[in-house]
Amino acid sequence: MNIAEQPLPHNELERLAALKRYNILDTLPEDAFDDATKLVSYICSVPIAHISFIDENRQWFKSEIGIGVSEVPREISFCQYTILESEMVEINDTFLSERFKNDPNVTGGLKVRFYAGVPLTTPDGYNIGTICAIDHVSKELNENQRNALSIVAKHIMNQLELGTKNIELAAQKKIAERAVLAKDSFLANMSHEIRTPLNAIIGFTDLLAQTKLDAAQRDYVDSVQIAEENLLLIINDILDLSKIESGNLTIEAQPFNLKNTLKHIYDLLKVKVPAGVEFNLFLDADMPEMVIGDQGRLNQILVNLTGNALKFTEEGEVTVSVKKTHETESDYSLRFSVKDTGIGIEEDKLMAIFERFTQAEESTTRKFGGTGLGLNIVKQLIELQDSEIHVKSKQGRGSEFFFVLTYKKTDHIETAAEPLLPINIDKLKILLCEDNLLNQKLVKNVIDNFGFELDIAGNGEEGIELLLKNEYDLILMDLQMPLRDGYQTTYSIRNELKLTIPIIAMTAHSLVGEQERCFKEGMNAYIPKPFKQAALLEAIRKVTSKNIPVETNSKINLSFLDEVSGGDSSFKQDMISLFIEKIPTEVIQLAEAFNNNDHDTIMRLSHNMKSSFDIFMLKDQSHYLSTIEKEAKLQQYSPQTLERINNLHAEMAEVIKTLKEL
Predict the structure, then answer these.
(1) What is this structure's pTM?
(2) Domain count for the chain
(3) Which positions does the record annotate as the modified residue Phosphohistidine (predicted)?
């Protein structure tokens, strides 16, 4: 071979750019490429085969049989000529080739006597590499072998294209996930910022309403309270929509009294009925009393539909009816209907009314108000329960919205709630941890009206200091505070001070799963802001009247291990020993990976450890790891991540001690 020739494609710069787009150079072996190389060796009956890529200076082998090296200089490769061609290059006998007969790999080295190479061509026409068959004896491929070699080359390019597309999709998915996270975080923070002053407005208006007012003042206060409720409804609609879109809104499955729920909705809405409208509730005599389902979402659906019917009906009637349509051994199917004699909807607008920010007529926005979100949320809530909503309407004659929901049967028998024990008002002393001055003043007035004593801490640090100095019966805990937030403060109270004092979470946030997290962290009740005085008083009565134990963070449950071991005590002992040996090291590695910002290691360790924790039913620790794994995937950590890792480290010491005793 004449090395001085140094052949280069006419589009060399563009070809190299195309090669770099695939990010294939110096990657690890992959089964798909190794299998293709084996297939070429088998089809062509040759001892040497390879898939290679050619950059500025070298021929790099992604997969090879019979070569034994990962790369060679470009100038000594046969394939530098193959990438100049558009079709297969076949040299039946290198001894007869003027170009290759004196090549070192022909006269010695690999002793190449036969060579067949197909260029790997990108969809836009650049030859970035080759797939080759090589033998020590002269030979000639038949037509089937040539076709097969070309097909394998196309398969290799398809594999490269698929990998590139997957990388692009993963990048786009990551961007989309970050956008959703940013949107949810923005909405949650905005809800907190809006709800905080709204909490003060509603609270002080309620206090004002309890004072002695003349007729005009009473009218003003009533008007403010109506405006407050409307504003709160808009905020809740926007947050519900965000939860549905992000897939974080789940449908509960709990026993509830269906008849009582429907009567409660009727009683709630009948105060809004216009003077010329008859409001009816018709329940099927065969309708079940107790079912399993989501009571809150049924409330939300029917209040929205019925509220609309009452709003758009100036005379006539509005009727809510429920009828059992089907029954099996395990469930009931119930048809819910809300029918009115109101303004009705034009036929060509019937489907549009379920789109967000849309109403049947633009004029209704001005005359009747509303965001246009309600029906969209109703539609999605019904679809989340595997059903769909229908509407029939005639303009000027009224509308009917109806849907069928299936509820599971239940053997649950509703019992009367035990009366709460009386509170000793003289001795009830409360600590409020809250940084907002308006909310401090509001809660103080409310608590004073209850007849309780209140101390105020402006943040979690001050709260801990007051707890060390004074005895309290209850803590009202805001979740978002400077220096130390509500979660961190609760953790210190439960795990460092070892106090079981009841804690009620109070927050203007509306993050998905926040209530569950409050209970996991050791709080006893949850009151969203803006709060109602009656709801706060009820929460206080409940947590101070009953001794509610707080579960420890490191409670081991061996029931699952007992089940999978099938009574094999040696297997059970091996699993415990493996946990003791492996987990402490992995927790340390997790902390190191976090300090090094090693997302892949964090993701792998979190995932693996979570499985181990699930075996021992360590739910809190498993929850920590699920959160850390999700954050590692997004490569975006919260301020609490390091605290979670430190908690794992501390809690594992207790777990390991318990397991060693076992």
Answers:
(1) 0.44
(2) 5
(3) 607
